[in-house]
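Quality-control log, excerpt.
Job 1 of 2 completed; input and output follow.
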Amino acid sequence: MSTKQVLPASGKLGILTPGMGAVSTTFMAGVELARQGLGQPIGSLTQMGHIRLGKRTDNRSPLIKDFVPLTEMDDIVFGGWDIFEDSAYDAALNAGVLPKEQLDSIGDFLKGIKPMKAVFDQRYVKKLEGTHVKGGENWMDLADQVRQDIRDFKANNDCERLVMVWCGSTEIFLAPGDVHQTIDSMEAAMREHHDQIAPSMIYAYAALMEGVPYVNGAPNLSCDFPAMVALSKREGVPIFGKDFKTGQTLMKTILAPGFKARMLGLSGWFSTNILGNRDGEVLDDPESFKTKEESKLSVLDTILQPDLYPQLYKDLYHKVRINYYPPRGDNKEGWDNIDIFGWMGQKMQIKVDFLCKDSILAAPIVLDLALFMDLASRAGMMGIQEWLSFYLKSPQAAEGLDPEHDLFIQLMKMKNNLRHLMGEDLITHLGTEYYD
């Protein structure tokens, strides 16, 4: 198998985050702490994961970062936009994810990261009031301003390449409509300041027009519609979304494949969350919650395939709730009651109480997605990067195809894609008798 041409990861990589709240500042602080030898990037496959090559008897399992030409963490530069003008240090301190003593150890570094003015419209995130925002005649004017921000950041920070990862809030629910079908219809709607164009789409458009790979870490429509997919292909830029897979949904994509593998039935799955950070506040609005709900509900149906297994999953009742509870801060609690049934229809129950730090789980996802999207760009890949579904709740897929939600299939697909890029044989997990 020949190696696909992958350009080297030379020079600096700028990682731009629309949204500089809990997730992005935890990510930035964590990378700097790791660079200073003050912490480990736990949860990051690009930094800590190994990949098997060849037969098991070959004993070839290098670190992923030693196998594929990823940007070194020392070569990463950070920037972003936010609706508040707090530095990364102040925003991280306010988020309360990492302890103050850790933040203080890299305080000067974080204080030097200050957000650019954001594209914001309260109609799309009703629980927030932005004070550090851009003004413009229409969406296209605002997109041009973001494009200029991108060019200025790249020049001022001597970056060779850029990647953009949306770390902003969940917008109100928008379904794809006529304005989202073609590049021309989208651009016309932007000039008309159409209400079916949301701020996250402005960042996606600006990124693609500047040749910058774009990842959507929220359940927003953002880049998951035909016009944006067409634009990414026209400009030769990779895109992917949506919604970082962190707490409760991560558990579902671990547990549900196990139930299905053992042919255990499911009659009900009730999920509730309490969360007190900015994300929880935003999701307290019913229209923003609907966007998140669509993302979280889609997981089980695709994994369980009720059309193929009606006796086991056709009548599954799946309910998701998110409750804003300020005292909890970033320490989210996800509680699941799972009603299963087995041999001869006998009923059983599983209860899961996951006390997690949402941004601690999301931060390594931001790092991995940024590095892998940069790799994809240097390999000449464009359009939807479905091989990165491992990281997202509601991964984009080609039109007419269902996304893959099974975490273990996702991981196999991602590692096989890396093997393919580097000219290694794909792993099929056949027994050794088939090799000899």
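Job 2 of 2 completed; input and output follow.
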Amino acid sequence: MAGEGRRGGRRWRIVLLATAPLLAGCGSSFGWYVVAPTTAQGRANLLFLLDGMVWTVALSASAITISIALGLLVALPGLSKRPRLRVLNRVFVELVRAVPVLVMILWVYYGLPIVTGLSVGVFAAGVIALALSDSAFEAEIFRAGIQSIERGQHEAAQALGLSGWRKYRLVILPQALRRILPALGNQFVYMLKMSSLVSVIGMQELTRRANELVVVEYRPLEIYTVLVLEYLVLILLVSAAVRRLERRLALPGEARR
């Protein structure tokens, strides 16, 4: 625990050292008052930006949850012995990975209502687009993780009378999840960053709020610096949570970082 605390302290000191040159530039050519917590205007602007963080986290968490579930469903046919199921897996993965995330967001928001006749809000469109784009990568992560489990584990599960879904649920997937957890954490970090693209359809997340504030205050350096710091804090928190979960799920004999 002491080592973990020291690592966390070093991580935050690095952040402060990296941002000190930017925050130190408080001369006449800088307008840090627009984001200074010591002024009423600065506090109002900071609260406006922080409200966007709530939507960023909600959007990313919803999208990653759906993409993990969808990715697992897509990965299982890729492990089948039937060629047709494997072909379906490859077609889905290759098609979805070929579409840029921004294009997927625009198509879901503007095109899906035309195709389905259903109205899609900006939040729902963002979640659908991000989850769909990420599901192809999640499918490959799950496929690689499941294939990394030794054949003996499959045989042991069958010897216990487990077959089909019960074998995967009780024996294979728990072990695979432990192995792919770092990759899943990386995808969550990726999702947090890609959520900024949803600002193009009017989603009031961090980037959209920063853009609106820049138009009002016309202080892009100061406002975008705060935006960078907000994303940095979010990603550091996610990374720390993933590492903590890795240590909790690690087996007694496994090396811990």
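Post-run check on job 2. The chain is about 80% helix and 0% strand.
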